Sequence to fold (183 residues):
Amino acid sequence: MTDRRWLNVALACGLVLLLLAGLGRVGYSTEGTFNDIPAPPSDDRIVFASDPLPEHPAPALFRVQTTVTWDRDDVWVAVVDQAEWERCKDAPASSFFGICTSNDLRAEVLGTPGTGEEGLVWNVTEGVHWAGYGSVGTPSGATLDLAWEADVQLAGAPTALLMLIGVALILYGRPRRAHSTPS
Fold:
């Protein structure tokens, strides 16, 4: 390849990197619902999902923010880490002891009763996490509906690095004027 072709490749790669940095900052969103979840069986005691939440694949590269809303005012929703999940799964099943209730839970994020329409917002962190829910008082309905939305965005440091490399490649590959030297 001639020198100009290498410069054109550098210019094209620089433009692609700047485009990727811009699209990464805009991000990607996805959403879904869980309908007809059985109501919590006991008052104010957390009930966990059968499986942990998916782990964050690359916390240094991407920022993930999740919003969860629910349709009942007597229900609270929480996200806990692995250690808290292990503490609660071995706790007595009755809320009489006050263990793993909405007042005792060491949650990463806790959506309190009456805030279901606004929901809870969780900035996903590294590690294994469990979702759970409970109700205040005796459950008033048979089922619960949850809606969720996840927003994924390229983190600041990778964006800056892509932009820096992209600008450097563009500057390297830009067309140059031919210099004339007097004879």
About this structure: The longest helix spans residues 3-26. The first strand starts at residue 28 and ends at 38.
